[in-house]
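Appendix C: a fully annotated inverse folding record. The material below is reproduced so that readers can follow the format used throughout the book. The structure is listed first as tokens, followed by the designed sequence.
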């Protein structure tokens, strides 16, 4: 469709961006209370690590995406950090 073509055109210039997603801060809870934790990409190992209070665990990109996109209840991405 014309709309989809326009969206692809707008975002095509971002494909050459030298920045990479490094970490994703997740908020779990409601708009007036909750808990935060973070997924951080380990470039040397090619995997994410989930830092949640005193617990650190290896995580897959699918784990991060489920939390970031709200597939796990009241969790969703709050802030994305990029590096170059």
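Designed amino acids, in order:
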């Amino acid at each position: 469709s014309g709309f989809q073509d326009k969206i692809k055109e707008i975002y095509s210039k971002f494909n050459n961006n030298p920045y990479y997603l490094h970490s994703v801060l997740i908020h779990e809870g409601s708009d007036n209370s909750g808990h935060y934790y973070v997924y951080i990409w380990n470039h040397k190992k090619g995997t994410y690590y989930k830092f949640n209070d005193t617990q650190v665990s290896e995580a897959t990109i699918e784990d991060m995406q489920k939390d970031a996109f709200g597939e796990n209840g009241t969790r969703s991405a709050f802030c994305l950090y990029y590096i170059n």
